[in-house]
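Late entry, evening session. Most of the bench is empty. Finally got around to the prediction I had been postponing all week. Sequence below, unchanged from the version circulated by S.P.
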Amino acid sequence: MSETEYNFEPFANTEDYRKINRKIIVTWIAAMVDSGVERVTRLLDIATGIGTMVQLFVEEMPDGWEEPEVICLDKSEGALEVARSKLENIVGSLSSIHSPIQVMEVPGEKVNVVLWGNGIHNLSEKDQVKAVNRIRDSLKEGGWFFFNSAFYEGARPEGTKSFYRYKVKKAVKYLREKGVERKRGEDRAEASKFLPRSHYREIVKKAGLKVHEMDELTAPLYQEAWEYISGFKNYALGALHGYPAEEAQEALRQAVAPALEKYGVEDENGELYVPRKWLRVSTRLD
C-alpha cells in the first residue's frame, strides 16, 4: 500500500470528520425509521477506507436492531485490510470486495443500505453515473442509498475564500523557495472539479432512485483535519495544478497553520477553525 494511495484516510479518523458524519448518519437512520424500516440485514459500504462510516452506523442503530451483514468495498486492498482489522470486533458478519465501484459485483442477495462517505466527487462525471447505476442494481426494492460530499459547488461558506487563497499563496511560495517548477497543460484531478447539487440530484434520478432528502450541514474543521485534507493527492493536484503531487501535498500541509492564523475563526476554547459545508443526500429504490 503506497503512501499516496492511503494518505487521505487519516482524515476519516479525525474528531472533526467523525462528528459531522455521526450527525449525518443519525439523520439517515431517522429517515429509515420514520419510513417504517425495522432492521437492516445487509449493508454495503463504498470506498470504505478505514471503516469509519460503518462504525458510526452500527453505533447509532436503534436499540433492538440486529447487527447487519456488512460488505466493505474499496479499490485499495491495503484499506480493506485496515477496515477488516477495525471492524471485525464490531460487526458479526463482515466481508469485502476489492474493486472499483464502477465495475463492482456484489455476491449473493441484494443489500438494504448502501453508504458512500465523502468519496463520490473523486470520480469523473461519467464514472459517477456508472457507479450510481451499479449501486441501484445492488439494492433491494425499498433499499436506501446514502452519500455525502464536502467537495461540491457551494462547499466553501461565504467568507472563507480568503483562507483558501492564502493557503495556496503560501504553498506556492514554499515550492518556489525549494526550486520546484510548475508544469503546464496537465489535467486537473476530478476532486478539484466541484459539481453543483443539481448534478447529484440528476444522476440518482436518472438511475431510477428517488431523492428522499438533499441538504447541507456546516461543520468546523481544525488544523489537524485541514492538514490531512491538504495532504490528499487529488486535493493537492487541484489546488496546486501543475506541480508534482508529493511536493504539492507537503506545501499545502505547511501552509495550513499560517492560513488558519490569519483567517481562522476562534472557538470558545481559543482554537482556530474554518467552516466547511457538507452535502447530505438520501435516496431510495421504490
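Two things to note before I forget:
The chain has a mean pLDDT of 92.
The chain has ten helices and eight strands.
Will write this up properly tomorrow.
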